[in-house]
Write a structure and sequence with these properties.
Layout (H helix, E strand, L loop, with lengths): L1 H34 L5 H5 L3 H20 L6 H38 L3 H32 L2 H5 L1 H6 L1 H11 L1 H16 L7 E4 L2 E8 L3 E6 L4 E5 L2 H4 L3 E2 L7 E9 L5 H13 L4 E13 L4 E9 L2 H22 L22 E3 L5 E3 L10
Antiparallel strand pairs: 1-2, 1-5, 2-3, 3-4, 6-8, 7-8, 9-10
Helix pairs in contact: 1-3, 3-4, 4-5, 5-9, 11-12
């Protein structure tokens, strides 16, 4: 009877005690979260209840397994397995606790500062710091697991002796990976690009969606994802529309006839912008910037608080201005000369013949019409 009750008491007692301690800890964290709703720390710590219970159970079983006298022939293997579980669960718990503390610090910073650019910069740094911490904890946990095997401890001396040569070889082999790693740290603390920034890379306009230590993802306006190594942003030029402030100035061009009413277009532009919610009211303007023998180029400048709004303002101004010209000033739209070709005035009898056989006096003005 003792051979049955002893393992049952030891194993069952460890599991029950783990569940009771985990339940009590979760209740305390939930109560603290309700009393201190201004900080998300306690709610975030509750995310670590699973690794916390695994640590408790593995530690209790590892400490009391010898008393259970269960499967004595496999005592070493079971003990080592419990140790590996304990090390892995501890690393998992450390990562969860670190993430809770970092997220809480970031949320406090975000509430205290209203500058979106600074908040995005800190968010980028926090994200990369968490990845570094997780990588370090994972490496330490893996090394600790390997050291539980006697063969690995015996090989430690020879590994340390060849560490210099292996480090050089690994550095040469992983040159690209290491360059991306250092580029990721440079982006995080150099404030070159942040999560949520509007960028233009390789002619593609989009928003920075994810930054890791090795790659960066840009979400384009049509919901595609462009993934590129972070070293691209430290070695090649790119446009960051959010750096130094999100406010932007947009440009709208029209090619119109020389008779277009420019003054009336300025007044119409003002009316269009007043009715456009995306316009921030900072500035606007309209001017003739170029001319050709057939048309002139008219440019409108509009402002908005960010890239999305400036796009909305541009398409609204372009569409409504064309509609207004079509309805009230159709003569201002570009026209194509459809008159017959003329010979020089010095031709016989002062007359010329067009390509289709029609005869016209050289000094008569050409006919024009809408194209």
């Amino acid at each position: 009877m003792e051979t049955v009750l002893r393992p049952l008491i030891v194993v069952g007692g460890s599991v029950v005690l783990t569940l009771l301690i985990g339940w009590a800890t979760d209740r305390l964290l939930r109560k603290a979260d309700d009393q201190h709703s201004e900080t998300p720390l306690w709610g975030l710590l509750r995310r670590g209840r699973i690794p916390y219970q695994i640590v408790l159970c593995a530690a209790m079983l590892r400490g009391s397994y010898d008393e259970a006298q269960l499967l004595q022939a496999h005592r070493v293997g079971i003990g080592r397995g419990l140790t590996l579980v304990l090390i892995g669960a501890t690393a998992w718990l450390v990562v969860r606790i670190t993430a809770a503390i970092v997220e809480t610090s970031y949320s406090r910073y975000a509430r205290a500062h209203r500058d979106p650019a600074r908040v995005r910069r800190v968010r980028t740094q926090v994200s990369l710091i968490m990845r570094v911490v997780a990588a370090i904890v994972g490496v330490v946990a893996a090394a600790s697991m390997l050291l539980t095997f006697p063969a690995m401890r015996a090989a430690g001396a020879s590994l340390l002796a060849s560490a210099g040569i292996l480090g050089i070889v690994a550095g040469v082999a992983a040159q690209s990976t290491l360059s991306n790693l250092f580029a990721g740290l440079q982006i995080a603390f150099g404030d070159m690009v942040r999560l949520g920034d509007t960028v233009v890379v390789d002619g593609e306009w989009g928003t920075v969606d994810e930054i890791t230590l090795t790659f960066l993802t840009v979400r384009t306006w049509d919901e595609r994802r462009i993934t590129m190594p972070v070293s691209y942003f430290t070695s090649k030029p790119f446009e960051n529309w959010s750096r130094g402030g999100a406010q932007m100035t947009g440009i709208v061009f029209w090619h119109l006839d020389h008779t277009a009413p420019v003054e009336a277009m300025r007044e119409r532009l003002r009316d269009i912008l007043r009715e456009c919610p995306a316009w921030d009211g900072r500035d606007y303007g309209l001017a003739v910037t170029d001319t050709t023998p057939n048309t002139m180029q008219v440019r409108a400048l509009v402002t908005a608080k960010d890239a999305d709004d400036v796009w909305t303002v541009r398409v609204t101004v372009r569409e409504q201005m064309i509609r207004w010209l079509t309805e009230h000033h159709p003569y201002a739209l570009p026209r194509v000369n459809t008159a017959d070709a003329l010979l020089s005035p010095g031709s016989p009898n002062g007359r010329s013949r067009s390509a289709d056989g029609a005869v016209r006096r050289a000094h008569e003005p050409p006919r024009t019409g809408r194209g």
